[in-house]
Design goal:
Layout lengths: L2 H6 L1 H18 L14 H11 L7 H22 L2 H26 L1 H54 L2 E2 L6 E2 L14 H11 L1
Antiparallel strand pairs: 1-2
Helix pairs in contact: 2-4, 2-5, 3-5, 4-5, 4-6, 5-6
């Protein structure tokens, strides 16, 4: 199994994206304080605060940080798959996972906060998800065009090299894209042609 096939596995790719996103969050010291309900246990509050770092924000700098972090992480499936459908579905799956559990925990353990802030947070979650999907599609299509252009350029270079190596039999006119010693059509000696061409180039 090739290494690229391992990275194409959705589970492996999911953990890579979450790991990188976590590194961005903790390296930048990004933290969001939620005014959760009274009486919630310390363990559940910690889990909610951790999950909130992946999708919620308090100010403009937090909003920009989340958009930049998710955009960078979303580039990974684009380069791995080179297919916009697979890229945006993978990115949305990764984005959906922490958000789903965040809202489930808020609904179950901090109902007052959930009811008063759900519309605001959920609206921005939907917008960020749309942005991630849009960027995944746009970057995938751009990458595909770049690779296609590069492939076409390489083919043009190969055809140019092939045309330079083309020789014609002086006896019967048969064309060759290699340098044979004898013409397969009339058995004429072609080594003389090659020597003459080399002499002209010099």
């Amino acid at each position: 199994m090739k290494i690229i096939d391992v990275f194409r596995s959705k589970i492996i790719l999911f953990f890579i994206q979450i790991l990188l996103l976590s590194l961005f969050i903790y390296n930048q010291g990004y933290y969001i304080e939620l005014d959760l309900d009274m009486g919630i246990s310390m363990e559940r509050e910690i889990i909610i605060q951790i999950l909130a770092r992946y999708s919620l924000f308090n100010d403009l700098s937090g909003l920009l940080f989340l958009y930049i972090s998710w955009t960078l992480v979303s580039l990974i499936p684009i380069f791995i798959y080179n297919n916009f459908k697979k890229a945006y579905s993978m990115n949305l799956m990764t984005f959906f996972f922490p958000n789903f559990f965040l809202y489930v925990f808020l609904w179950n353990y901090s109902r007052e906060y959930f009811n008063s802030n759900f519309q605001f947070h959920f609206l921005h979650t939907i917008i960020l998800g749309i942005v991630i999907a849009g960027l995944s599609i746009a970057f995938s299509l751009i990458l595909k065009k770049v690779l296609k252009f590069k492939s076409e350029t390489q083919l043009e270079d190969l055809s140019l090299i092939a045309s330079k190596n083309k020789i014609k039999c002086p006896n019967c006119g048969t064309e060759f894209y290699s340098t044979p010693k004898f013409c397969y059509n009339c058995n004429a000696d072609l080594t003389v042609i090659i020597k003459e061409n080399n002499g002209k180039e010099e």
